[in-house]
Write a structure and sequence with these properties.
It is a single chain. With 50 residues, this protein is an all-alpha fold. Helices cover 84% and strands 0% of the residues. It has one domain. GO terms for molecular function: protein dimerization activity. One of its GO terms (biological process) is regulation of sporulation.
């Protein structure tokens, strides 16, 4: 996976999480799941760019 593609995935995931959290709450299970997915994407990006 290239860094550019990963950055797009990170931004889309972040956007989805923020929008859902605004409609529900930060403790909503779907928000937590998306946050976990975002963490994984950020870790991938960190390791790719190191």
């Amino acid at each position: 996976m290239c860094a550019e593609s990963l950055l797009k995935d990170i931004e889309n995931c972040r956007k989805e999480m923020v929008e859902l959290a605004a409609k529900t709450s930060l403790s909503n299970q779907r928000v937590v799941d998306i946050s976990t997915r975002l963490d994984h994407l950020l870790n991938k990006y960190y390791h790719l760019s190191s």
